[in-house]
Amino acid sequence: MRTHKLILSASLLTTILLGVTACKDSSLLEVKPRTAVDSETALKTIEGLDAGINGIYDRLQSVVLYGRDMLAVSEALGDNAQFTNKSGRLANENRNVANNTFGTATSSGGSWLTAYLAINQANLILDNAGTVTVAAADTARRNSYQGQAYFLRALMYHDLMRIYAYDPGVEVASQNKGGVPILLTGVSDQSKITFPARAPIADVYKQIYSDLQSAITALGRSNAYAVAPNYANVQAANALFSRVALYNKDYSTVVRYATAAIAGSIKLSDNASYVGGWRAPKQPESLFEVQFAVASENIGVNTSLQTTYTTLVRPGDRGTTGGFGDLVPTTAFIADLEAEKSATGAVLDIRRQLYELGTAGRGTAFIETTKFLGKNGTINLDNVPVIRVSELYLNRAEANYFLGNTADALADLNVIRTRSGLPARTATELSGIALLNEIYRQARLEFGFEGHRWFDLKRTGKDVVKATAQGGGLAYTDFRILAPIPLNELSTNVSIRQNFGY
Amino acid sequence: MRKSLLGSWLLLLLLALPALAQDVAINGRVTSSDDDSVLPGVSVQVRGTTRGTVTDATGSYRISAPKGAKLVYSFIGYANQEITVGTQTEVNVKLVAGAQSLDEVVVTGYGGTVNRREFTGAISKVTGAQISNLPVGSFDKALAGRAAGVQVTSANGVPGGAIQIRIRGVGSISAGSDPLYVIDGVQINTTNNSTFTSSNPLAFLNPSDIENIEILKDAAAASIYGSQAANGVVLVTTKRGKAGKTAISFNYYKGISDPIKKLNVLNAQDWIKLRTENLVNAGTTPVNSLTNVLSTLRLPINLSDADLAALPTYDWQDAVYKQGQTNNYELNLNGGNEKTRFFVSGSYYTQSANIINIDFVRGTINTTLTHQINNKLSIEQTLKLSTITSRGQFGSPNGGSFLGAAAFSSPLILPSVPIYNSDGSYYGTPALGGIPGILNQNIVQVSELNTIRANQNSFVGSLALNYKVNDNLTIRPFVSMDYRSIRGHSFSDPRTADGVNVRGRIQDQLNENKNFLTNITANYNKIFAGKHDVSVLLGAEYRSDINENLSTNITNVPTSDFQYANAAALPVSIGGSWTGYRKGSVFGNVKYNFNRKYDLSFIGRLDGSSRFGANNRFGFFPSVSGAWLISEESFLKGNSTVSDLKLRASFGTTGNDQLGSAFGAANFPGLGLVSPGFDYNGAAGFAPSQLANPDLKWETNETINLGLDFGLLGNRITGSVDVFQRTSKDLLLPFNLPFTSGYTTIARNAGEVQNRGIEFEINTVNVRAGQFQWKSSFNITSIQNKVTKLYPGIVKLNNPDSTVLLSYTDFYGVGRNAILGRPLQPAYTTDYAGVNPATGRAMFYDYAGNITYRPLTPRDQKYFGTELPKFYGGFNNTFIYGGLSLDFLFQFDYGRRSFNSQTSFLAENAGRNFNALQSFYDRRWQKPGDITDVPRAYNANVEPQSVSNIGGTRTLEDASYLRLKQVTLAYDIPATIARKIKASKARIYVQGANLITVTNWTSYDPEFLNFGSGNSGLVPNSKTYQAGINITF
Fold first, then answer.
1. InterPro entries given for it (chain A) (predicted)?
2. Gap between the Cα atoms of A182 and A176, Å rounded
């Protein structure tokens, strides 16, 4: 009896011990994640590609890209804006304090990190899209995803080049450390990680050209799946091409692609509808804008574009204070908008209507831009235009000027001037450098607070002239014209060279 | 596999050994040496076996034991006694109430207990009595200063809020450093899943239900818990029933709490002057500056000097800091007979913080039952139910610079801003443009109108069956469940700043954690040839832990009367998540004692966990330890000076698997993952979020411990000294990847951290004269922490030190640097050099020690100390005179350096529209020749061609403190009087906590945890006073 019990209990224990150790070979210790999927299988279906593409656009929504910094930090660094110190944000950027630039306020990786995350996602789509077997009906859809991936990759390389490298033709040779690393293969496991050096500037432009050509080809065959302005589309790709070529001082290409884009279905707004267009959720001129459609995409009260630019919550209502209004036009910028007046002294430029006095709720009231006012129905929720039709005319005007086609240049300039309520100029009134300066001036006024000015100064090699309160400006040769490569890149990749001065 | 087979064979072998000796039946009575009262519930055990019984209500027992065997009598609070069984059949024993000595019983995990005399590991013990009636929401907070090697820090002063315990330093870089908590055998999940309030999963337990707490510190003590034991183990044993007349005990106390400190900030006049000075110094004309300041304050810009002088100052700290209240009601029943014993208790505890609308309410019911089914089988059951409702502070549970957070904003709001309008309504509501200044929210309104609440319901239950196979062998299957649900609710009132533009926001959280554990252990005990005492523990365990979360965020309510989600019109987001892991283990412990002098112990544990990569799923954690009881040697035996002396040594490994974060475990760190949530334009998207590392494995600690336990002068002086070296290897590091790879990091086992330390504990009876007694206990721990390895290939920083630095986000969400060769949690910054007396500009030292206005990073950065203390400890004194006792505990923490992020705002000296500390105002540079450490006021704090004047080491402060943690005065009412109310015992007491704090820290409270925002916006700890009564019938 006693022995019996002993054996019974001993074998019970043994069984349990064996059972537990057996886990090694069984699924007892196997737990699968339920809120994420294995990266090996994610992009093997057409639905997976769709989700993957959305994942890239999601990166563009980041504060360090089109959520704020591509626009607001660009304005802070440039000469259109002054900081108000209402939350303290963008004050250092506005004073051009070194290391305070794109993405650095909210991420140690700068805008660099998010752009490369997006590039890797685009690379993974392009690596996988070709191998996904789809029904015949879905071929166009697949082409569209490929085309969008090319477009988005081109946009990211373009933005990286604008931030971290000199633009072609205006390199400061003694300080030039090249372009940015080019990665064209997706990383899905450790073995695929590479440690590339910064490619020469020309090579990066070659790659952007190639991506845009691929985008135009692929999107041209499947336009139904990539609808403007929410998603990349042929007209937007042509437009971006004209801009990239302009940065590359490749003027005939600018004219070709600007002309192609102008021929597209989205047209320039006319004088009567222009200001109203800025009150609509989708800017009617936008060829591509980053959508902030649903509440969960709201960047919120601290760093959205609305809170950055204005204290207002709706035009003309100074009684309710919304955001911080951290970055507002300088008096010089407003004066420039008001420079041309009618005989009765009224301001002619209708774009002045996009600026109005903010509230005193957070201190002194300033004139603020109202281009971003929670137009998607909720405060701080605005779509962000990346490229608009107006730019095409100004790109083409500038290119034609350099190609010597001043008549064409003047014609395009006058399209923008007359649309803005300003009188057309004649060739006698505007010629030579005055014509060019007027093209630059119109670009500055047209794209005020849309993030163009800093990059336009930079690509043309101009000094940035600012008042002492805004840091006193900087010469074009100043090292702060380029943003620092994130420290992480230098510590993880010996091939990367930091920009001069950092 | 092979190992466990071996184990079971060994077990079979042991089973086969027959019991041969002849038994003698013995009975007797156990009494207390204090007053000769009978002692029920004393354990009487045949040494070297599991055979035992307990005394009944009359203190009597009956047991049969072999001739020559030794009977061990043990009872909590009394010294053990041993009697050798001879021919006598009646053995009466008097137990001596003892201070901590080598004779006490130590709980060692998995149902095991051992006489401290034979224990080979490093352990600290705190009794329930020491921490009872302290006004704390959870018992861990009460451990501060009481045990060597144990550092206890409250995250903040939120009642029932988060606590951190560090046993022998911090041994992990990016993984968790929290000990394993085992309460009555239940391994508790301590992940903090509460989104809206600062919560502590351990708050479910009423501290008064605790019998004692053991803290296992070295590998010899802890490695039986294997992969969870690297950060030490805290074993909590709750009170058990004692056979005899049912005792009903009632305990009540009531208390109040006051803020430790208020900050001295500027009045309206000084602030206007200072802010104007900022603008003038930055180039604005004096007239325009004053106009600008007055218009910011929304005052008429043409105020005369007399008007200015007459401006009132409003004290926002007074408006939000309130006296807190504490109430505690407890009732417990305790009794039973030889077969069945029970302990049932209920409690209701409420505590409000010093800041309006932050409080904690808890109800608990706790039952434990032990029942002897027959002489072979007994069961032990525990069930602890609790429900907690707590209200937390606005913004984030762990502080932060939130405009509406009372703790953050109250010292910073501009002093001329009124709190209420003359009609009593809130001044400066969002509808009226908010209050002037950057902090534009009326924090009284925000605190009073918003609701931030969490409901934590938990049950922790266990059932164990003890099957006594024979005198030598017990088999014990055990099963437990640790269930916790958290219902969080946050309502942003449409009248407050965060609600006004969305017409109110309602956020809800439902989090459920199910932690199931089962194990089976076998205990074998036998003495061979009278002097070879062998005991063997073998066990197997399985644990499954699952967490599910549901969260909703919805806006737009009709009016503020509607505070639940069905009333809101616009859903913003809905989140759901699931995570879980499983673990399977086998473990064993062989202990050998020779002749009561020499002890050896071997422990091995094999753990398998679903958390780890397929290539490294299993980890083996062995330890070996020994002890030599020198005082048993003939040359010391009977020595009147050295009454006890024991030398201990141990070496072993333990593991750490706390991956992810304190607020959500990462259970899949080795897999390549693509995560959802990267949506665009209302359509679902995903993105790669993690690269696979199939080689991922546990972090491993190797601990060497040398200890000496001593008792001098008949144990009037007892204590221990331990030196240890804890080397934490294979630390999980975020291996930084070039961002161009599309990832930021990959998790790899690469780091190494060393903690070397010495611990000293001493307990003395200083005076014992008649009815008067004075006892002291003191402990101190000094630890040197050092990062000894980061992964190779980190490019050295471009500075003269060529610092190897790795930035990472730690388990608690704090972005930190690890510097090779330096302690963890370093302050790495530029060196503030004071103020140029000629210009008032802030100066810094560059790498070469030269003055610069623009220090460069990383060139001029240096190491300036760590947030880890150099040493810490406690000093407790007890004076007893008859029924009167006075107890006070000092706790100290020295050498911690931390950025004072709350003070940092106050140090701006109105560079932005914040109020400033009076001391900074008084010390600021004003004219050439001023020698001071506070730069001149300058708008936005950055002078041209300079860096911020509040940067570098300027706000790095010494957070050392000495605190009178507790004072208790208690009076035991004489039995003659107590009997008049039919009570057997009655006690009244008054108590104070945190009464005195000595520190150089310039903000509220030097005791805090950095969860990413430093100390800004933290609710500080309180001073508390309470009085209570405890009656037992």
1. SusD-like_N (IPR033985), SusD_RagB_dom (IPR012944), TPR-like_helical_dom_sf (IPR011990)
2. 17
Apex B720 CA angle, B151 and B656, nearest 5: 45
Dmax over CA atoms of chain A, in Å, equals: 121
Structure-token pair, residue B180: 């394993």
| Helical ranges in A105-220 per DSSP H | 110-129, 139-164, 201-220
Residue B619 near residue B227, CB atoms below 8 Å:
yes
Q: What is the pLDDT of residues B44-86, one digit of tens each?
A: 888 777 778 888 777 888 888 888 888 888 876 677 788 888 7
Across chain B, what does the average pLDDT equal? Answer: 90
Model confidence pLDDT, tens digit, residues A94-149: 999 999 999 998 888 899 999 999 999 999 999 999 888 888 878 889 999 999 99
In the block, residue with structure tokens 């394993």:
B180
Contact A119/B at CB under 8 A:
yes
B504 burial type by CB count under 10 A (0-12 exposed, 13-18 middle, 19+ buried)? buried
Relative to beta strand B180-183, strand B233-238 is parallel
Interface mutation target, options A8, A11, A12, A23, chain B, most CBs of B under 10 Å: A23
* Helical axes A433-446 vs A406-419, angle rounded to 10°: 30
**Residues B829/B952, Cβ–Cβ less than 8 Å:** yes
| H or E, element range at B386 | strand B377-391
The closest of A472, A450, A474 to A461, measured between CA atoms, is A474
Query: Over the range B424-437, which residues count as b (16 or more CB within 10 Å of their CB) and which as e?
Result: eebbbbbebbbbbb
How far apart, in Å, are the Cα atoms of A340 and each of A143, A166, A430, B160?
Answer: 49, 35, 15, 66
Phi, psi of A191 (to 5 degrees): -65, -15
| Residue A239: count of CB within 10 angstroms of its CB | 28
pLDDT in the model for residue B2: 42
pLDDT tens across B501-526, in order?
A: 889 999 999 999 999 999 999 999 99
Say whether A193 and B807 touch across the interface (CB within 8 A): no
- 3-state class (DSSP) for residue A407: helix
**C-beta atoms of B434 and A362 within 8 A:** yes
Say how far apart CA B750 and CA B733 lie, in whole Å: 6
CB contact under 8 A, A28 and B584: yes
Q: Using only the alpha carbons of chain A, give its radius of gyration.
A: 26
Of B598-607, B698-707, B972-981, the range with the lowest mean pLDDT is B972-981
Q: Return d(Cα B205, Cα B183) in angstroms, integer.
A: 9
Instruction: For residue B687, give the nearest of A232, A70, A36 by alpha carbon.
Output: A36
User: Which of B681, B736, B820, B943 is most worth mutating to test chain A (most A CB atoms within 10 A of its CB)?
Assistant: B681
Token pair, residue B965, equals 């943690």
Taking the C-alpha atoms of residue A218 and residue A211, their distance in angstroms, rounded to an integer, is 10
Chain A residues touching B394 at Cβ < 8 A: none
Kindly state the helix (H) or strand (E) to which residue B550 belongs, with its residue range.
strand B532-555
Q: Which two tokens stand for residue A86?
A: 């209402």
A301 touches chain B (CB under 8 A): yes
Lowest mean pLDDT among A114-118, B153-157, B828-832: B153-157
Q: Which amino acid is at A31?
A: V
Q: How far is CA B475 from CA A495, B84, B449, B471, B591, in A?
A: 63, 27, 58, 11, 17
- The domains of chain B are located at 2-98
Name which residue leads in pLDDT, A15 or B975.
B975
CA–CA separation, A80 and A369 (whole Å): 11
Taking alpha carbons only, the member of B437, B910, B938, B951 closest to residue A469 is B938
Cβ atoms of A318 and A359 within 8 Å: the answer is yes
Stated pTM of the model: 0.83
A490 vs B555, B687, B795: nearest CB? B795
Q: Which residues pair with A121 in a beta bridge?
A: none
Residues B2-98: name the CATH superfamily: Carboxypeptidase-like, regulatory domain (2.60.40.1120)
